[in-house]
Amino acid sequence: MSNATEQWSSKLGFIYATAGSAIGLGAIWKFPYIVGQSGGGAFFIVFLLLTLFLGVPLLIGEYILGRHTGKDAILTYKTLAPRSAFQMTGWLGVICCFLILSFYSVIGGWSLLYLGSALSGQLSELSLGESQNYFGNLIASPALSLGAQLLFLMLTALVVAKGVQKGIERVSKWMIPALLVLLLILAIYSLTLDGAAQGIQYLLAPNFSAVDGETILFALGQAFFALSVGVSVMVTFSSYASKQQNLPASAMTLALMNIFVALLAGLVIFPGVFTFGFQPDEGPELIFAVLPAIFEQMAFGQLLLIAFFVLFMFAALSTAFSLLEIIVAAFVRGDQDKRKRASWFFALLIFIVGVPSTLSYGLLADLEFGGRSFFDTIDYLTSNILMPLGALLICLFIPRKISKETLWNEFSSGSNTGKRLFALWYSLVKYVAPIAICIVFIDQLFGLNLITILFG
């Protein structure tokens, strides 16, 4: 029986793997439609600020926790705070990852269905109305949606079962560069469209009158979702990192890559939206219902559409690997002989739990909670409640359960980082981040409109 802890093969391998976790559907699917529903440029700027001043410090904190203990998300908190309620932070992260993957795999299944439809030519010559009907009919089919979701989870389990180096790292090393190249090509092409200037203005020009408490909450959730923080994903991933890994530089690299990908995704979508007279607030179906109609009106549209959904599938799988890895690692506990069985078992269990999300657009379309479908409810619960809550607990945990000397040693290991940068990071994690998260939560729970007053 092997109990050896796995490690990334190199510093770059760590970057690729964490990038695969963060740069997924959060940037390519979720970011554009939330921008469209939240007023455009103002949301983007709020998201940018929250990513840099809250997301990155938290990311560094999760990196430190994982590398310091060398353990999975659950054992990390149990080791550092053995008789403390903070132990539940790890369990909260694992449960949240499980729930995220239960609805995330639905979108992953859609990516496979649309890639197949693009390759077969079924999406060609569809008007916007026809494209929307096609999307609605496709996801309303229980057999197609459930089959695609199961296939997506099986592909995910196949890679995670092979382990950290031979599975996740090896696939991420070619998947992430390919994703960036494809997205860059599509963005450059999109900028040649007639509506490019209007699309850029919508994405980047801020209108802060549109910002309210809900906008900030959604931007906060998106910042955490985009960096995979708040659910201890990065605790587990950094437990495989060497002491030579520069954690602050790695965190900033990942954040900048994520912002860059989100920006590219916006530049791919919004110029086409405005060029062909579509609405930017179409919602979660923006990519599936609108993009095929946009590409159909472009030169080489069929080829570009296939390229986009190849990219989209890459993005979906890269994040799914990390979500399943966190769950598997928590139960394998370093015993690699159990990895294969655990990967397939949890993939099947997630599929079963995700069935109601899959059927939210078909048989269970009338099932709602507070006006939200089952799918949207799980999305809202994980992105806007559990992830910020997990981030708050991590902010409270780090300065209270780990000595400042230990934090400095991990922060500076593998780098020439100065004390001033460490002091800034420590202050952001101990004071700024928890206060900011609490203000957003209180504003939403009690309707105080503090953020509206602040921006007004």
From TrEMBL:
PROSITE patterns to which the protein is assigned, alphabetical: NA_NEUROTRAN_SYMP_1, NA_NEUROTRAN_SYMP_3
UniProt entry tagged with the keyword Nucleotide-binding: no
Keywords, alphabetical: Membrane, Symport, Transmembrane, Transmembrane helix, Transport
UniProt topology in membrane: Multi-pass membrane protein
Subcellular location: Membrane
Entry-linked CDD domains: SLC6sbd_Tyt1-Like
InterPro entries according to UniProt: Na/ntran_symport (IPR000175), SNS_sf (IPR037272), YocR/YhdH-like (IPR047218)
Spans through the membrane: 12-29, 41-65, 86-114, 134-161, 173-196, 216-241, 253-279, 299-332, 344-365, 385-402, 423-442
Alphabetical list of NCBIfam families matching this protein: Na_transp
Similarity annotation: Belongs to the sodium:neurotransmitter symporter (SNF) (TC 2.A.22) family.
Protein name as annotated: Transporter
